[in-house]
Amino acid sequence: MARDSKLRREAIVQLATTTGLTGVDELSAHFGVTASTIRRDLAQLERAGALARTYGGAMAIVAHPEASLRQRVGEEFEAKRAIARWAARQLAAGETVLLDAGSTTGALAHELRNGPALTVVTTGMTALQELASAEAVTVECLGGVLRPKSQGFIGPLAEAALERRTFDRVFLGADGVTAEDGICEADIRQTRLKELMARRSDRVYVLVHAAKIGRRPFHAWAPLPPKWTLVTDASAAEADLEPFRARGVEVVLADENGDDVSGSTASSR
C-alpha cells in the first residue's frame, strides 16, 4: 500500500510537470481513488516541496524552473532548424515581419541572414545578433526592459511601440502551447506582449518543437486569434495535433529540409 501511494504521488508530480494545473476530482478519477486520498497526497507533496496547492484543490508544480535561453539553444536543435527553414520560405521581399524572443525564432533569424530584403522588428537579443550584419535586412528593436532569462525585451515601452506599428507576419515562440488557451510562458509580461504582437499582425505563426505541444508548465497565457498557424517538427503526434485542427488552426509539420509534410494544401501567402 505504501508503495502504491509513493508511485501515485510520483505520477501526480509528473502530471503537473507535463500538463500544468490538475484538479482534485480529475486526479481522483484518473487514479481511481477518493478525493480525500488525493488531498492527502497533495498535502504531503506540498510539505515535501514538490507541489504548491492552489484555490479549488488544483495544484501547481514549483520545482519546475524556467530554463534560460542559453540552456534552450541546444535543445531539439534539428527540430528548431527544420521549423526555421520552413518559416523563412514564407517571407517575400519587402515584407515587415515581427520576431519574438527565443531560440526557435533565433534560428529563424539565422535563416534570414542571406534571404530577401525585409524589415525585421524583434523583441529578442538572439535575432538582433543574428541579423546585425545582414545587409539586405533592416533591423528594428522594440525596446523595453531586457528580461535576462529569455533575453527578450518586455514592458510598457515595448507595448507602446507595438501599438504604433502593424506587421505582415509575426513569428512567436512559447514554453508551451495548447489549442484551448494559446501560448504559455513563465511571466505574464511576456504573454501580454505576445498577445499584442499577434493582434498587430496579419498572419500569426507559433513556432514550437513537438515536445512543447499541449504543455502547461506555467500559469501565464497569451490567447491567440481565431486564425493562426502552428509550426512544429515532423515528430509531432497526430493525437496532440488533433485539438488544434479541430479548432481550425493550420498545422505545419516541417521536415529536416523545411518542407511541410502535414499534407496540408493551404496557401502560406
Automatic annotation (TrEMBL):
Q: Which residues form the HTH deoR-type domain?
A: 5-60
In terms of InterPro entries, this protein maps to: Carb_Metab_HTH_regulators (IPR050313), DeoR-like_C (IPR014036), DeoR_HTH (IPR001034), NagB/RpiA_transferase-like (IPR037171), WH-like_DNA-bd_sf (IPR036388), WH_DNA-bd_sf (IPR036390)
Citing just one GO molecular function, the answer is: DNA-binding transcription factor activity
Stored Pfam families: DeoRC, HTH_DeoR
Q: Does the keyword Ribosomal protein apply?
A: no
Any keyword Transcription? yes
Q: Which UniProt keywords apply?
A: Transcription, Transcription regulation
**For this UniProt entry, which segments traverse the membrane?**
none
Know the name of this protein?
A: DeoR/GlpR transcriptional regulator
Whose protein is this, by species?
Saccharopolyspora hirsuta
